[in-house]
Amino acid sequence: MAGRILLTGGAGYIGSHTYVELKSAGHDVVILDNFSNARHDVIDRLEVITDGPVTLHEGDVLDKAFLASVFAAHQFDAVIHFAAKKAVGESVEKPLDYFETNCTGFSNLLMAMRDGGVFRVVFSSTATVYGEPETLPFTEDHRLAPLSPYAQSKVVCETLLAQCKTADDRWAYGILRYFNPAGAHDSALIGEDPNDIPNNLMPYIAKVATGELPTLNVFGDDYDTPDGTGVRDYIHVVDLARGHVQSVAKLIGGNETHTLNLGTGIGYSVFDMLHAYERACGKKLPYRIAPRRAGDIDCFYADPTLANDWLGFEARRDLDDMCRTSWNWVSRRKNT
Ligand SMILES: NC(=O)c1ccc[n+]([C@@H]2O[C@H](COP(=O)([O-])OP(=O)(O)OC[C@H]3O[C@@H](n4cnc5c(N)ncnc54)[C@H](O)[C@@H]3O)[C@@H](O)[C@H]2O)c1
Ligand SMILES: O=c1ccn([C@@H]2O[C@H](COP(=O)(O)OP(=O)(O)O[C@H]3O[C@H](CO)[C@@H](O)[C@H](O)[C@H]3O)[C@@H](O)[C@H]2O)c(=O)[nH]1
User: Fold this and answer.
1) Over the stretch 93-147, which tens digit does the pLDDT of each residue have?
2) What distance in angstroms lies between residue 68's CA and the mean position of ligand 2's atoms?
3) For atom 1 of ligand 1, which residue has the closest CA?
4) For residues 248 and 6, what is the distance between their CA atoms, to the nearest angstrom?
5) Rounded to a whole number, what is the largest CA-CA distance in the chain?
6) Cα separations (Å) of 158 from 121, 165, 258, 280?
7) Dihedral sign from CA coordinates of 212, 214, 219, 224
8) How far apart are CA 29 and CA 52, in angstroms?
9) Cis ω on the peptide bond leading into residue 137 (within 30° of 0)?
10) Active site residue 150
11) What is d(CA 79, CA 60) in angstroms, rounded to the nearest whole number?
12) Any long-range contacts for 291-294 (C-beta under 8 Å, 24+ apart)?
C-alpha cells in the first residue's frame, strides 16, 4: 500500500538509496536533512534518477519548531528515521554530541510525530547493539551489550520506542538492525561519499583504488578467522533500501511492530573484500598489515531468517555486485 513518507536523513548514504526504492514502489516521499553529512547535489541526482522533483525540508531534528512546521505542512502515513551521527570512534570522543543528535533528535521527532498524529516509524539501528557475540549468527534475541556511545545511543532509541508502544498502543515501529552496508546505486549517481578519510572498509578501499589514498591498512591478521582478518556481513545498500520499503509497507498495511536484522547471513573477511574490489577495478591494490583497531570484534554476521519470515526480505546482491557498483560510483565521481 503506497503512502506519504517522511525520510529524515534522506540525503545521506542509505537514505538516498531508500528514497529511490520508495519512489519506484509508488510512495510519495518528503526528505528532511540538515546536510551535516551530505552534499546538496544529491538532491539533483535523486531528481535525475527518479525523473521528478524532490520535496525537501532543510533543517535539524534538534529544532522542534522546524519539526512542527514539517508535520504541519504534510499529513504523513509513516516516518523512516535515518538522521543520526554514525562514526563509532568519534562517538567515544564526543559522547554528548552523539546522545544529543541520536537520542534527543529522535525523541524530538517522536514528539512531533505524536503531535502531528503520526504513529508509524522505521528506525535505523545497527548490529553493533549486540556487542561481543555470545553466539553466531546474531539472532534478534541475542542480548544487547553496546560497546560504544554510538551503539548505546541506538539501544536508548530502541528502548524508547518500546516504552512509547507500552504507553500508547497507536505506535507501530520497525527497528532494523543493519549489518555492514556497502555498494552504490546502479546509476552511479549516488553512493557513499565521505568528505574525510573513511573509517569503514569499503570506502577506504575505494579511495585506494582511485589513487586518493596510497595503501589499505588491514587492521590485524591474527584474528581467529579463516585468513586472520576481521569478518563482517556486508549487505548491498540497495538491498538494505528495499528492506525499508518492505518494513514501512508492513507498518502502513497492518500496524505490525517488528525488530529485524538486515544482513545476508554471509561473513566476508577484509581480504575477501580487497580481492573482490581488485576484480571490480581490474588492478592489484596495495595493502599493509597494521595493528588491530581498538574495539574491533573478530567476526559477526546476521541470522536473516526473521526478516525473511516477516517481510519476505532477501538480499539479492553479492560481494562482487557491491564492489562493482562502488567502483562505478567512485570512478565516475572522481571524473566529474
Ligand atoms: N552506514 C552504516 O554503516 C550504518 C550501519 C548501521 C546503522 N546505520 C544508521 O543508518 C542511518 C543512516 O546512515 P548513513 O550511512 O546513511 O549515514 P549518513 O551520514 O550518510 O546519513 C545521515 C543523514 O542524516 C543527516 N543528519 C545528520 N544529523 C542530522 C540532524 N541533526 N538533523 C537532520 N539531518 C541530520 C546527514 O546530513 C545525512 O544526510 C544512521 O542512523 C546510522 O546510524 C548506518
Ligand atoms: O581501513 C580499514 C577499515 C576497516 N578494516 C576492517 O574491516 C572490517 C570492517 O570494518 P568497518 O567497515 O569499519 O565496519 P565495522 O567496524 O563493522 O562497523 C560498521 O558496521 C556496523 C554495523 O555492523 C555499523 O553499526 C558501524 O556504524 C559501521 O562503522 C573490520 O574487521 C575492520 O577492522 C580494515 O582492516 N581497514
Assistant:
1) 999 999 999 999 999 999 999 999 999 999 999 999 999 999 999 999 999 999 9
2) 36
3) 181
4) 11
5) 57
6) 11, 11, 11, 37
7) positive
8) 11
9) yes
10) yes
11) 15
12) 291/219, 291/220, 292/219, 292/220, 292/222, 292/223, 293/219, 293/220
**Closest residue by CA, ligand 2 atom 13:** 200
**Which of 91, 273, 293 is the pocket-test mutation for ligand 2 (most atoms within 8 Å of CB)?**
293
Distance 104 CA to ligand 2 centre (A): 26
Ligand 2 atom nearest the C-alpha of 231 is 31
Residues 215 and 213: their CA atoms lie apart, in Å, by 6
Alpha carbon distances (Å) from 75 to 68, 107, 172, 255, 306:
12, 19, 17, 17, 31
**Nearest ligand by distance to the CA of 13:** 1
Is beta strand 258-262 parallel, antiparallel or unpaired with respect to 120-126?
unpaired
Q: At CA 73, angle to CA 70 and CA 79, rounded to 5?
A: 50
Catalytic hit among 150, 173, 204, 268? 150
| pTM (whole model) above 0.90 | yes
Q: β-strand 231-232 against 268-269: which pairing, if any? A: antiparallel
Q: From atom 25 of ligand 2, which residue's Cα is the shortest distance away?
A: 126
Report residue 209 as a C-alpha cell: 583504488
Angle at 304 between CA 302 and CA 306, to 5 degrees: 130
Alpha helices in the chain (DSSP H): 13-24, 41-50, 64-73, 88-93, 95-98, 105-115, 149-167, 201-209, 237-254, 270-281, 305-311, 319-334
Atom of ligand 2 at shortest distance to CA of 150? 27
DSSP letters of 17-77?
A: HHHHHHHHTT-EEEEEE--TTS-THHHHHHHHHHTSPPEEEE--TT-HHHHHHHHHH---S
C-alpha cell at 213: 589514498
Domains and CATH numbers, the chain: 4-182+234-264 (3.40.50.720)
Q: How confident is the model at residue 255 (pLDDT cuts 50, 70, 90)?
A: confident
